[in-house]
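Hexosyltransferase
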Amino acid sequence: MGIINFNCVFIFRSNPGCFEASLRANLISVSVLIYGLGPHFGCSATSNSILDRAIDSEDAQHQDFLRLEHVEGYHELSAKTKIFFSTAVAKWDAEFYVKVDDDVHVNLGTLAATLARHRSKPRVYIGCMKSGPVLSQKSVKYHEPEYWKFGEGGNKYFRHATGQIYAISKDIATYISINQPLLHKYANEDVSLGSWLIGLEVEHIDDRNMCCGTPPDCEWKAQAGNVCVASFDWSCSGICKSVEKIKFVHERCGEGEGAVWSALF
């Protein structure tokens, strides 16, 4: 079994629950527990009582939110990641734990088949591995306050999975849970996770099907028989205008319900 966490990022919308509803309609259209994936929306408390009430209402209706003891904030994503894995390991005995941003399109059957190929490996870290520049300028979005730890100016980070979607095996999630107080948090969540694993006996799996572009990229690949695990826009670190576009992306790049039922996991 694998546990998927759709990492909620809250912004004020006229209908705060509309995007999660779209995800349910398009990505979780049948019971994925049948083939071993348990999807949940990982959400923390917010500083906006209107959003909190909307979450409470939606959770009462669908009962698929994983409420974390954490307060939302962009610079708190590394802490949220630690809390999610610790909470998930305590709650579910799974072979894999998957983190997905909620503005990313995911084909669950293809994801299940991808994870199944690595079931025999005890410690795997699966995602689109990248190595971006360490940014010391305070004015930029991905500024790294601890840039000096990474060597001279112009250096790049070690290889790590991009934060839009990645999977780790049970042993790694358990390690994070046990050692949570000792794991250092860098400014960027994906860098933090990579730093926790860089010195361990962990196999890094670079799977480019986990970072396809939105149509036409994922559409062409699907037509060629190479359905993507996940699709998003690099320029937006997710699907640009995701509330409006995710249904369109699913129509063009979705694997179809047959893939869900036939996934061998």
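thats it. Residues 77-91 form the longest helix (15 residues). Residues 53 and 59 are 10 Å apart (CA to CA). bye
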